[in-house]
Amino acid sequence: MTTPATHHRVLIVGGGSAGVSVAARLRNARVGDIGLIEPSGTHYYQPLWTLVGGGCAPVGKSARPQASVVPRGVAWLKDRAVEIDPGDRTVTTASGARVGYDRLVVCPGIQLDWERVAGMAEALRTPAVSSNYTYELAPKTWELIRDLRSGTAVFTMPAGPIKCAGAPQKIAYLAADHWRRRGVLGAIRVVLVLPTPGLFGVREFAEELERVVARYGIEVRTNSELVEVDGEGRQVVVADHAAGTRETIGYDLLHVVPPQSAPDWIKAGPLADPGNPAGYVEVDKHTMRHVRHPEVFALGDAGSTPNSKTGAAVRRQAPVVARNVIATLGNQPPPASYDGYASCPLTTARDKTLLAEFDYTMRPTPSFPFIDTTRERRDMWYLKRYGLSALYWNLMLKGRA
């Protein structure tokens, strides 16, 4: 075994919400010698991008310098991880550095696979196509919504796990509500393409969303998926997997969401779940510990836990990972357990949000026991628009929530 050039007691791969939150919690617990590998100089609060695309928030509010969120006492390695060797307990970076660890926390985020749908990547460069899944494109979404007066608007969602699975629907509802307020909704055909058999996997929330869809007159294609985009011709091909048919739809506005997977280097590495082609890091769904390499933990979008990939899930996973890392450093078994909690604040109008909270049981698990969160509410809109971002920057990233 070759001694690595650098070694940390705890090494974290990824400086997004998961990595920074775990680092902060470890520092709050007085754990020393923590390294954080993150190539980006900017940290993004991605949940705001739906509101940016809907014309309800400025995109600049979603970005801050990465240096401002890395906890004090944590060594930031501004580099990109490209390989993990759990046998040698080392991580290799794009610059060729080899970093050793006693405990490894893997949270590099999720990969947007634009090329997996024929024509999607090229269509993003055409005038009528956008996506809220990048910082650069979210403002374009609002420009398209704001300028549309008639025609056909298509909103799509891919099959498989994606980050914030409610986002493909949220922007459709925000757009429809804007057009309703402008008096042009009747002249716009709105089509929502979903790979799932229903609008949501929890019955109580699905029933409320069915009422929202009816209010706006949205055509929902369930069990269906976008399989081809002709950006120049402004047409999409939608496959109905239940019926075994394909439909070509012309559009004047198209909002796409790409298929997603673990980063390629994770997929090709020894930590990936061999039974999952998406290649997520294979962890125990409760302890967040790798099932084959006990020195390794993972959380966030790149982990294999069967829950929605949301910031709210990270907020519940981070304390579990931090406690279990600390315990194993002391040769103790992991004491903390994650119950699969996730939350999806579904913006159903420009002043209403349906706060869907659930866990591994796929039953509602409300955080506000005295109000009915199975219905769209104005107070939940204010929570989504202002409260959650304040919670994120001021508490979650500092390991306090």
Labels describing this entry:
FAD/NAD(P)-binding domain; seven-stranded mixed beta sheet; five-stranded parallel beta sheet; 2 domains; alpha/beta; 401 residues; 9 helices
Task: Characterize the structure shown.
Helices cover 25% and strands 25% of the residues. The chain has helices spanning 17-28, 48-53, 120-123, 138-147, 167-182, 203-216, 264-267, 311-329, 378-394, and strands spanning 6-13, 34-37, 42-44, 63-65, 74-77, 81-85, 90-93, 98-106, 111-112, 129-130, 151-156, 188-193, 219-221, 224-230, 235-240, 245-250, 253-255, 260-261, 296-298, 342-349, 352-358. Strands 1, 2, 5, 6, 7, 8 and 19 form a seven-stranded mixed sheet that branches. A five-stranded parallel sheet has the order 10-17-11-12-13, covered by helices on one side. It has a three-stranded antiparallel sheet with strand order 14-15-16, with no helix packed on it. Helix 1 (17-28) links the parallel strand 1 (6-13) and strand 2 (34-37). The longest helix has 19 residues, at 311-329. The radius of gyration is 21 Å and the shape is globular. The two termini are 40 Å apart.
- The overall pLDDT, averaged over residues, is 97
Roughly how many Å is the radius of gyration? 21 Å
Number of domains: 2
Annotated CATH homologous superfamily of the largest domain: FAD/NAD(P)-binding domain
Strand content: 25-35%
What is the CATH topology descriptor of the largest domain?
A: FAD/NAD(P)-binding domain
